[in-house]
TrEMBL record:
EC id: 7.1.1.2
UniProt-annotated location(s): Mitochondrion membrane
Full protein name: NADH-ubiquinone oxidoreductase chain 4
Transmembrane segments: 7-36, 48-72, 79-98, 104-125, 137-157, 169-192, 204-225, 240-258, 265-283, 295-316, 328-349, 369-392, 412-431
Lineage: Eukaryota, Metazoa, Ecdysozoa, Arthropoda, Hexapoda
Length: 435
């Protein structure tokens, strides 16, 4: 893994010669090398306290693929060399998070990833409110992560190690459990600590929305998976608290989606609802729940990122994200309608998508945890279908503001949308090779 990190570090000169395609090909070269070398069921490619296993392997592939799609989405923007450097910094931080075998390495990268992300939002955002959204993101994360640093010092003094395979907590103190949980719940985000996400999404450029939805929310789920092996007893003892908040919060957020008038804001709130399902799958410590949540994180990474990209295609042509202005886009941009329809269908977990398989697994684990949770799951699925249908019908149908107009899409835009869709459709076919 250290060779992979050095390869990415030596990609830095490519950022400043302003040749984004060479930078992107280098990303894809790493992606192909990782796919060909494969991964075992436990840590391998170990070097300098870094390794990769089956959980982090697919998330690393997601990082490299989404970062390549970010470059496609920002082709016509200014300050391209600076954007490539920010992209490389985000890739390095996320790679260290997903490959670190030491909790301290993971914590340092977890904190440092905020700096390039805030620069991306403030530097390439749309409106003056981006300063406040960057501040929300920064302080929400810092508020919960500073107690984690104190906890890591305490764990090191008690156990003498911060390696994941050597840490085993035996404390029954609820505060330790709360600190280890809330730091990842904010990153997902969980309902009640989700206020930073809609603000960051609305003010961020399209690449910022893609990396927020596709990658940043997965840090929380990955952290929950890693920390769940440290102390199973506390997870099982207090899991009902997080299960209840996520279950009720997903229903409330799904209803809130129906009251939105901004495309990006609705997609951001739908991400919170889906992350609530991920929490419910992870928190019951069942095999089906872990697999379903893991698959849903991967599916959400492609589906939500693709929806933000298509919403930006509409915004770049109509200069508005409002449902009240974007009417009849089926007439104005007919080639984008089918992609928008497929993303909305996959967002409501229609077969044969990976979302459908993962939500079936999560439903089974929820029923095993509490029988009556099936009624709440029905409400969540129903309202998810409602706001996905609302998102499609309000923008595509109706009378367009001009008498007649037509707009074509570029080859780059088709390529980016196809790459978002292909893993969602073909991943269920290869799902047996994941575990």
């Amino acid at each position: 893994m250290m060779a992979l990190l050095f390869f990415m570090i030596f990609m830095t000169p490519l950022c400043f010669i302003n040749l984004p395609m060479i930078f992107q090909y280098s990303n894809l070269l790493i992606l192909i090398w990782l796919i060909l070398t494969g991964c075992g069921s436990f840590y391998n490619k170990i070097s300098y306290f870094m390794g990769v296993d089956i959980i982090s392997f697919n998330l690393i592939l997601l990082v490299l693929l989404i970062s390549s799609l970010m470059i496609i989405s920002m082709m016509n923007y200014n300050w391209m060399s600076s954007f490539l450097f920010i992209n490389l910094s985000l890739n390095l931080c996320l790679l260290i998070i997903f490959t670190s075998m030491n909790f301290l390495y993971m914590y340092v990268s977890f904190e440092f990833v905020l700096i390039p992300l805030v620069i991306l939002i403030i530097g390439w955002g749309y409106q003056p409110e981006r300063l406040m959204s960057g501040m929300y993101l920064l302080f929400y994360t810092m508020l919960v992560s500073l107690p984690l640093l104190i906890l890591l010092v305490y764990i090191y003094m008690d156990l003498g190690s911060l390696f994941f395979d050597m840490m085993k907590l035996h404390s029954n103190f609820f505060l330790i459990h709360f600190i280890l949980m809330i730091v990842f719940m904010v990153k997902m985000p969980m309902y009640l600590v989700h206020f930073w996400l809609p603000k960051a999404h609305v003010q961020a450029p399209v690449s910022g929305s893609m990396i927020l939805a596709g990658l940043m929310l997965k840090i929380g789920g990955y952290g929950l998976i890693r920390s769940s092996f440290l102390y199973e007893y506390m997870y099982t003892k207090y899991s009902y608290i997080w299960f209840t908040i996520s279950m009720l919060g997903s229903i409330y957020i799904s209803i809130t989606c129906l009251m939105q008038s901004d495309m990006k804001c609705l997609i951001a709130f739908s991400s919170i609802s889906h992350m609530g399902l991920v929490i419910m799958g992870l928190i019951n410590l069942s095999n089906l729940g872990l697999m379903g949540s893991y698959y849903l994180m991967l599916a959400h990474g492609f589906c939500s990122s693709g929806m933000f990209y298509v919403a930006n295609i509409f915004y770049s042509r109509t200069n508005s994200r409002s449902f009240y202005i974007n009417k009849g886009l089926m007439i104005y941009l007919p080639s984008g309608c089918i992609f928008w329809f497929m993303f909305c269908c996959f967002n409501m977990s229609c077969p044969p998508s990976l979302n459908f398989i993962s939500e079936l697994m999560i439903l089974t684990s929820m029923v095993n945890f509490w029988n009556n949770s099936i009624y709440f799951f029905i409400f969540i699925s129903f309202f998810c279908a409602c706001f996905s249908y609302y998102l499609f019908s309000f923008s595509q149908h109706g009378l367009y503001s001009s008498l007649y107009s037509f707009s074509n899409m570029t080859c780059y835009e088709y390529l980016c949308m196809y790459i978002h869709l292909i893993p969602l459709i073909f991943s269920p076919v290869m799902i047996s090779s994941f575990f």
